[in-house]
Specification:
Its main location: membrane. The protein is an all-alpha fold and about 180 residues long. It has one domain. About 95% of the residues lie in helices and about 0% in strands. The chain has helices at about 1-15, 25-155, 160-175. It is rod-shaped and about 200 Å long.
Length: about 180
């Protein structure tokens, strides 16, 4: 079979001439030359495009990495600020509680002092009222005694006796006033 195919190709070659006279041959040669000549610049262009794309991707990755680091730093900063704010808030609350306790104790002391002062004022008023009541009772007793004495003296003493009693009372008055 090979011999039959070879013979057919040989007959075909003899009828058409040598292989380099065939247009298919020259198309194939031209294609191979174009591909061979274009391969180096095209491969360089493709390599350059791939390198540029690779550099661009690397740049974006570096930028993304940098942004991620910045975001982590910002997160850490905000977390630190939040912790500081929470600590400060706790300190403020503790201070406010201590201040409230101090104010409550002070208010209790002030209330106690005020109550004692009011109690003392009430006791003073009671003592004044008592003293005034005693004076009024004494004055009333003196008035009653004077009235009774006048009545008794007026009924039992004569005018001469009354005059001598008044004179004696006036003489004794400076000694009794001191």
């Amino acid at each position: 079979m090979i011999s039959v195919a070879y013979a057919a190709d040989a007959a075909h070659a003899a009828a058409h001439g040598a292989f380099y006279t065939e247009p298919h041959f020259w198309v194939d040669v031209a294609f191979i030359l174009v591909v061979a000549l274009a391969f180096k610049p095209v491969s360089r262009a493709i390599a350059a495009a791939l390198d540029a794309r690779s550099a661009k991707i690397k740049s974006r990755l570096d930028e993304a990495h940098k942004l991620r680091e910045e975001a982590q730093e910002m997160l850490a900063t905000y977390q630190r600020k939040q912790r500081d704010a929470m600590k400060e808030a706790e300190e403020i609350i503790a201070h406010a509680k201590a201040e409230a306790e101090r104010l409550a104790k002070q208010a209790a002391k002030d209330l106690e002092v005020s109550m004692k002062r009011r109690e003392q004022m009430a006791m003073d008023r009671i003592a004044q009222a008592e003293a005034q009541a005693v004076r009024e009772v004494q004055n009333l007793a003196v008035d009653v005694a004077i009235g009774a004495a006048q009545k008794v003296i007026g009924e039992s003493l004569s005018a001469a006796q009354t005059g001598s009693l008044v004179d004696n009372a006036i003489k004794d008055l400076p000694g009794k006033l001191h």
